[in-house]
Amino acid sequence: MSKQARPWVLGSAGIVFALILWWIFTHSATGNTMITAFAPENIPSAFAALFSRGVLLSDIGVSLWRLLAGLLIAGVIGIPLGLAIGFWRGVDQFSAPLVQFLRMVSPLSWAPIAVALFGVGSSPVIFLVAMAAVWPITLNTVSGVRALDRQHLQVAQTLGATPFETLRTVVVPSIKPYVLSGIRLALGIAWVIIVPAEMLGVSSGLGYEILNARDRLAYDEMLAVILVIGALGMVLDWVAQKVLR
Prior knowledge:
By secondary structure, the protein is mainly alpha-helical. The protein folds into two domains: 1-36; 42-244, MetI-like fold (Orthogonal Bundle). Helix content is 81%, strand content 0%. It has eleven helices and no strands. The protein has helices spanning 5-28, 33-36, 43-52, 56-87, 89-104, 111-118, 122-146, 150-158, 163-197, 206-215, 219-244. Helix 4 (56-87) crosses helix 10. The chain is elongated, with a radius of gyration of 23 Å. The two termini are 28 Å apart. The model has no long low-confidence stretch (mean pLDDT 83).
C-alpha cells in the first residue's frame, strides 16, 4: 500500500467500523423505539423528508452566513487588539485582567444578554459566534507579534520605512502564520458554538432544525441534521487548511 493511499484506506476503515458500531447499538435495544429511530437505515428517508420540506439547504446557508459574519467581526476586533497587546506593554498590562476574564467565560453564558440587547434573530447568534472566535484570533496575533524578530523592525526603521510600510512589509508577513492558525482555531470553536446559539428564538439554521425535529419527535431527522453539522465542520476545516495556506 502506497503512503498516499494509506490514510484514505485507514480513514475509510474507521468510518465503516463506526457504522457497524452504530448499527449494532441501534439494533441491540429491542423494544426501545427511541433508540431504533436512530438506526442507520432511517437516515436516507430523513434526508428525503428534510429536502422535501425545502429546509436543509436554506438552513445550511443561513448557518454559514452567521458563521462568516461572526468570524469577520472577530477578526476585525481580534487582530488589531492582538497587535496592540503584543507591541505595547502598557496595553498588555492594562487589558490582561479583562482579556483573561472574558475569554474564560463561556460564550453561551452571554446568550441572555445577547437576546436582551439584540432581540431574536441572527444578530444575537452572530454576537455569540464573535465572542467565541475573537479570543483565539487575538491571542494568536499576540503570539505572532512576540515571536517577531525585532532586528527586522530595526532594519526597516534604518531604511526609512514609515510605520505603515513596516506593518505591511515586516509585521504582516511575520505574524501571518500565527493569525491564520488563530482563524482556523476560531472557525472550529465558532462552528461548535453556532448550533446551540441557533436554539435561541430563531426560526432558521441547523441548530433550530435540531430543536424543531426534537419537538416534532422526528428523531431520525434530528440525527440527519447532526450528521450534516459534523460533515460540514470537517469540510470547513479542510477548506480552511487549503485557503489559509
